[in-house]
Amino acid sequence: MDNNSDIILIKQTKKRNEKAFTSIFNKYWDELFISAFFVLKDEDVCKDIVQEIFVSFWNRCPELEIINLRAYLLQATKYQVAKYIRDNQKYEVLSQSYENIETVEFNEEPIEYKELHTIISQKINTLPERCREVFRLSRLEGLSNKQIGEKLNISVSTVENQITKALKFLRHELSGYTTLLSLVFFFHF
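RESULT FIELD:
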């Protein structure tokens, strides 16, 4: 249902309907900002990145063929964050970690990534059942909070609380892996 409203908004934005674009902006700005901030921890940079994504979306919308708007915008965020990391010496350590994680795509996982992934999986498995289920649907299957709520017959605020609880627990349990953890959750979970 959410995807259908996005499709309508995309069609209207292609026709340069500013109200439709504003609806998209309002609907996704927070999520994109939080995704970028989770990795970069710099509010101003993240605001700029999200702004660039929406400017690009507005300019290119008439030529784009988007099936899933949320996935498209999150992928654009991932790309812009990675670009920012590559382009800034200040984030050299993050960049090196990101490059290691990216090699997973080519079936050559670094040992550190395999170990971290195993540890994360073990920690996720220790979450309470409902919390674990919500977290997996969010991070592994990429469902929106609304979709998770509908699937599990719970409120969106309950979904948000469970995700917050899971992330807080995992940050605490995995505090020694902060840099890699932020990249794994941002890019893979």
